[in-house]
């Protein structure tokens, strides 16, 4: 296990700053879950943590371990790529499930299905 | 060539991912990674997904840079809305239905990733029969403006790359 105390000051400061900024964005996202009014608004809040929040934390991690091991540590890039590719799947599933339920209940706030010309076979996009 | 290397870009990407995970550029890691990437691309060829053709790879870095700028900008905007004193009340949030000309499934997937990666917009559903996409926007001031932003800023560029 590498020792965080061995990190020189010039690297420790940016690492701490990046970590705190990332964690702060995560915190703001969580506060948003509490403060926003309905489901569709709340779904936006955690994306703060999954985009820029995780970005800052990954930068901090890459910098920290690159300096400690005196070689570029870059596999954080993979986490970022996988995050960007996978979060839309979860968010879309959640949003579509909510939309389906609200439409079934006839919620007037929710847009109806688009006017259909003819829909022989529904292919979900 | 196509028989042995059905997806050259994907094979390269998998090899890059392998090398990043292995954290080494030694011949051993390179060989093993190439083997894994090749095997994976053959398995994918059996599944026969729709072919993707990237027409203008040169436009990709510019697009990624724009996405990065937009991510930072919209993170800031959404954080401001959440932290606004007196209750987090966005001026107005709501749905916009956006007609898309983009039909390529990979282009649509890329657009979904971009829109989800920028806080404040969530891709809700896509209707393939008439090519419209339903978007939920946290700070929906002007619906027309959003349609223009999506079409001009992202869709046009993605169509250059994918179609």
From TrEMBL, chain A:
Keywords: Membrane, Transmembrane, Transmembrane helix. PANTHER family: ANTIPORTER SUBUNIT MNHG2-RELATED (PTHR34703:SF1). This is Monovalent cation/H(+) antiporter subunit G. The chain crosses the membrane at residues 12-36, 48-67, 73-95. InterPro entries: PhaG_MnhG_YufB. Pfam families: PhaG_MnhG_YufB. The gene is mnhG. It comes from the Bacteria. Residues 103-125 are annotated as: Disordered. GO terms for molecular function: sodium:proton antiporter activity.
From TrEMBL, chain B:
InterPro entries: Cation_antiport_E. Pfam families: MNHE. Keywords: Cell membrane, Membrane, Transmembrane, Transmembrane helix. GO terms for cellular component: plasma membrane. It is a multi-pass membrane protein. The chain crosses the membrane at residues 32-48. PANTHER family: NA(+)/H(+) ANTIPORTER SUBUNIT E1, NA(+)_H(+) ANTIPORTER SUBUNIT E1. Belongs to the CPA3 antiporters (TC 2.A.63) subunit E family. This is Na+/H+ antiporter subunit E. It comes from Roseicella aerolata.
């Amino acid at each position: 296990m590498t020792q965080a105390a061995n990190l020189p000051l010039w690297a420790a400061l940016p690492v701490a700053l990046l970590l705190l900024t990332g964690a702060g964005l995560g915190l703001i996202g969580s506060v948003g879950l509490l403060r926003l009014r309905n489901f569709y608004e709340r779904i936006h809040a955690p994306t703060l943590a999954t985009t820029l929040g995780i970005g800052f934390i990954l930068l901090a991690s890459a910098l920290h371990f690159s300096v400690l091991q005196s070689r570029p540590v870059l596999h954080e890039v993979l986490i970022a790529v996988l995050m960007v590719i996978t979060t839309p799947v979860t968010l879309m599933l959640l949003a579509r499930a909510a939309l389906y339920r609200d439409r079934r209940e006839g919620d007037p706030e929710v847009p109806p299905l688009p006017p259909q010309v003819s829909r022989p076979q529904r292919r979900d996009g | 060539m196509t028989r042995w290397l059905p997806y050259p870009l994907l094979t390269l990407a998998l090899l890059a991912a392998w090398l990043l995970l292995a954290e080494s550029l030694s011949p051993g890691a390179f060989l093993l990674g190439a083997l894994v990437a090749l095997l994976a691309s053959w398995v994918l060829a059996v599944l026969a997904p729709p072919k993707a053709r990237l027409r203008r790879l040169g436009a990709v870095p510019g697009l990624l840079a724009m996405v990065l700028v937009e991510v930072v900008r919209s993170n800031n905007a959404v954080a401001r809305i959440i932290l606004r004193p007196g209750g987090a009340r966005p001026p107005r949030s709501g749905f916009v239905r956006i007609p898309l000309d983009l039909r390529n499934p990979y282009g649509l997937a890329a657009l979904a990733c971009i829109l989800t990666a920028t806080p404040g917009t969530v891709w809700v559903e896509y209707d393939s029969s008439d090519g419209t996409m339903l978007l939920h926007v946290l700070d929906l001031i002007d619906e027309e403006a959003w349609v223009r932003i999506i079409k001009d800023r992202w869709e046009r560029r993605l169509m250059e790359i994918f179609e």
